[in-house]
């Protein structure tokens, strides 16, 4: 496995590298402290996963993200600073696959990497799941309600699929965390809330209703579907 870390803080690069090596002794790691250099490495090093800091000294992380997406669909985890929720949303909308908020726990970082490696191994196909008036294309992340369409991020798509498959029953936070990351970790509930908030907005966009996903306090969510 090849991991590219684009981050100007050397301490963070070192701690990320250390965590990766402890979990995957054979991992091949490359790093760049500048955005331009990082962009070149995406091409020349052809990583399996990119960890991308949003605050870089030359060009910002969003610009790196935008340019990478012009030629590569490599899984990208963005590193954001605490309190910058807008940055996270913007990053996910620009097709980052996942995010982590600094400072983060080693376990949390590894869980995210693990989940992206796992997802990468799912074969791309055109599997469609239909229920009620919803239709979701699992590998394209397209969600339809009748003829109205919205594009989800991979994480939103996984959550939607999990919820609608189990419609009208409670889906717990921990089962969602396992679906996304293969594991639970401190802070996973917060992350799930961010995803669900966006997912709700997207569902409302195509259905005109905001009450499909109901929060069950301290437990998780229920997808309400009349069949
Ligand atoms: Ca930085």
Written description of the protein model:
- By secondary structure, this protein is of the alpha/beta class.
- It has 2 domains: 2-120, 3-Layer(aba) Sandwich (Rossmann fold), CATH 3.40.50.2300; 124-223, Arc Repressor Mutant, subunit A (Orthogonal Bundle).
- The protein is built from 8 helices and 12 strands.
- It has helices at residues 10-23, 35-44, 61-68, 85-93, 106-120, 154-165, 173-181, 188-207; strands spanning 2-6, 28-32, 49-53, 76-81, 98-102, 128-131, 134-137, 142-145, 148-151, 170-172, 213-216, 220-223.
- The strands form 3 sheets. The chain has a 5-stranded parallel sheet with strand order 2-1-3-4-5, with helices on both faces. Strands 6-7-8-9 form a 4-stranded antiparallel sheet, covered by helices on one side. Strands 10-12-11 form a 3-stranded antiparallel sheet.
- α6 (154-165) packs across α8.
- The mean pLDDT is 90.
- The structure holds calcium ion.
Helix content: 40-55%
Give me the count of strands.
12
Q: Which small molecules are bound?
A: calcium ion
Terminus-to-terminus distance:
45 Å
Oligomer: single chain
Contiguous low-pLDDT stretches (5 residues minimum) are none
Fourth-tier CATH superfamily name of the largest domain: Response regulator
CATH topology group of the largest domain: Rossmann fold
User: What would you call the structural class?
Assistant: alpha/beta
Strand content: 15-25%
* Radius of gyration of CA atoms, rounded to a whole number: 18 Å
Strand order of the largest sheet: 2-1-3-4-5
| Number of H/I helices | 8
CATH class of the largest domain: Alpha Beta
Shape: globular
* Count of separate structural domains: 2
Specify the CATH architecture of the largest domain: 3-Layer(aba) Sandwich
Secondary-structure element pattern, one letter each = EHEHEHEHEHEEEEHEHHEE
């Amino acid at each position: 496995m090849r991991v590219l870390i684009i981050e100007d803080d050397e301490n963070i690069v070192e701690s990320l590298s250390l965590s990766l090596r402890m979990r995957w002794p054979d991992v091949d790691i490359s790093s760049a402290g500048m955005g331009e250099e990082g962009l070149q490495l995406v091409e020349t090093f052809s990583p399996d996963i990119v960890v991308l800091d949003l605050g870089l000294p030359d060009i910002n992380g969003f610009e790196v993200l935008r340019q990478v997406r012009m030629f590569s669909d490599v899984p990208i985890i963005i590193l954001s600073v605490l309190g910058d929720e807008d940055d996270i949303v913007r990053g996910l909308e620009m097709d980052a696959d996942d995010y982590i908020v600094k400072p983060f726990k080693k376990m949390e970082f590894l869980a995210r990497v693990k989940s992206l490696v796992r997802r990468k191994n799912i074969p791309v196909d055109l599997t469609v799941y239909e229920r009620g008036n919803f239709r979701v294309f699992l590998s394209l992340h397209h969600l339809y309600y009748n003829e109205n369409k919205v594009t989800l991020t991979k994480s939103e798509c996984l959550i939607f699929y999990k919820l609608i498959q189990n419609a009208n029953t409670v889906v717990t936070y921990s089962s969602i965390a396992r679906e996304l990351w293969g594991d639970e970790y401190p802070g996973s509930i917060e992350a799930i809330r961010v995803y669900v908030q966006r997912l709700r907005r997207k569902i409302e966009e195509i259905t005109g209703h905001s009450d499909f996903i109901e929060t069950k306090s301290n437990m998780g969510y229920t997808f309400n579907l009349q069949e």
